[in-house]
């Protein structure tokens, strides 16, 4: 899988990036990134551990980087999502 394809798969939520995502996928449920992409960010992050939130924040930052490289202004939304996911001490 090429880097671009892998990044798109992670950003879209098709690839598990945290323990919670692995559990969700094993239960045939969407990953947190997939939920957030569908507008369910609050519910997607409500029950995540700090480690899972950091993992999701990293995914959101990667998505922001990919969108920025394409000149897509929605990269700002991905940055905001990452800020919301990051623990207060990491901000």
How are the SSEs placed, and which strands pair?
Blueprint: H1 3-12, H2 19-26, H3 32-37, H4 41-45, H5 50-69, H6 75-85
Helix pairs in contact: 1-5, 5-6
Task: Describe this protein's structure.
With 91 residues, the chain is mostly helical. Helices cover 66% and strands 0% of the residues. It contains six helices and no strands. The chain has helices at 3-12, 19-26, 32-37, 41-45, 50-69, 75-85. Helix 1 (3-12) crosses helix 5 (50-69) and helix 5 (50-69) runs antiparallel to helix 6. It starts with a helix and ends in a 6-residue tail after the last helix. The relative contact order is 0.15.
Quick recap:
The protein has helices spanning 3-12, 19-26, 32-37, 41-45, 50-69, 75-85.
Give the SSE order as H and E letters: HHHHHH
Helix content percent band: 55-70%
* Number of H/I helices: 6
Largest sheet data: none
Structural class, judged by helices and strands? mainly alpha
For this structure, the quaternary state is: single chain
What's the total number of strands? 0
Distance between the termini: 33 Å
Approximate strand percentage: under 5%
- The residue-averaged pLDDT reads 75
The whole-angstrom Rg is: 12 Å
> Can you tell me the residue ranges where pLDDT is under 50 for at least 5 consecutive residues?
none
| Overall form | globular
